[in-house]
């Protein structure tokens, strides 16, 4: 396979009803093309003391595609409900509705801002994790270095608070570790992931993250081991299967790659995964 074939792996873990969502995978031939078409990069968060993300104007330069007038109207109505609420329970409910809508519109940084506001009022582990995971989601989707740095710092700040409350929160530690990888101290993140694996060898989020890091460093053999370990314990993890197929293709193990990718096509219900699998298969021909 050509090395110009770029795989962008977006590792996004979020707590939904106590469960984490496994990483999303997007495959593109050209990063530039992805940057131009992306609708999921977050809004700028610099100078937040002057202008919060809730006040940031939606525009194509910061989010790929601006919110439609209808979407903007929905957001403004929900924001108004949140701001005018004085009762804590009512305010939290309004915040949840606003956060959910921002997530639906792939404005993860804005969703994270309001989740953090809730966590400031009630800094429970659950509320902090929600805010941290949303900042992490925004971090993983960001394609601009400056925004990525700020979002990663915000995620680490909140995950640090989570771990102060519960040092055994492996998801917080895993996600926090991944924010270090793009800093000047990437080994700090790798060591944190190894600590997680040492504590729980089959912990899926950490195994997946280590697989991702192996791909980024072109260590496809190591990545294969990680994704196979995940599939041994969870054969239905189509995202791990997709990445396994990609790694096998890079190692020129075409028959194995084809077999696993065809399983992804047969079993996955995610259009992005199916599209990615088809694209990799087309490269094998």
Automatic annotation (TrEMBL):
Span list, region Disordered: 33-70
Stretches forming TPR repeats: 204-237
Keyword S-adenosyl-L-methionine belongs to the record: no
Superkingdom of origin: Bacteria
Keyword terms of this UniProt record: TPR repeat
Signal peptide start and end residues: none
Name used for this protein in its record: Tetratricopeptide repeat protein
Record organism: Arcicella rigui
């Amino acid at each position: 396979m050509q090395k110009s074939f770029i795989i962008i792996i977006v590792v996004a873990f979020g707590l939904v009803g106590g469960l984490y969502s496994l990483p999303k995978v997007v495959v593109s031939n050209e990063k530039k093309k992805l940057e131009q078409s992306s609708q999921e990069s977050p809004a700028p968060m610099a100078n937040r003391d002057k202008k919060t993300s809730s006040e940031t104007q939606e525009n194509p330069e910061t989010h790929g595609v601006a919110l439609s007038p209808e979407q903007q109207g929905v957001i403004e109505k929900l924001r108004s409900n949140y701001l005018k609420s004085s009762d804590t329970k009512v305010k939290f409910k309004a915040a949840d509705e606003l956060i959910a809508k921002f997530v639906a519109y792939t404005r993860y940084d804005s969703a994270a801002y309001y989740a953090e506001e809730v966590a400031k009022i009630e800094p429970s582990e659950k509320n902090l994790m929600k805010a941290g995971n949303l900042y992490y989601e925004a971090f993983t989707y960001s394609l601009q270095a400056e925004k990525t740095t700020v979002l990663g710092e915000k995620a680490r700040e909140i995950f640090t608070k989570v771990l102060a409350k519960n040092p055994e929160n492996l998801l917080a530690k895993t996600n926090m570790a991944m924010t270090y990888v793009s800093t000047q101290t990437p080994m700090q993140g790798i060591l944190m992931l190894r600590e997680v694996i040492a504590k729980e060898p089959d912990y899926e989020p950490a195994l997946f993250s280590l697989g991702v890091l192996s791909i980024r460093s072109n260590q496809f053999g190591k990545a294969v081991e990680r994704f196979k370990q995940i599939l041994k314990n969870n054969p239905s993890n189509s995202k791990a299967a997709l990445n396994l197929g990609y790694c096998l293709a890079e190692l020129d193990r075409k028959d194995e790659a084809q077999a696993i990718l065809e399983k992804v096509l047969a079993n996955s219900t995610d259009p992005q995964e199916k599209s990615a699998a088809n694209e990799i298969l087309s490269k094998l021909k």
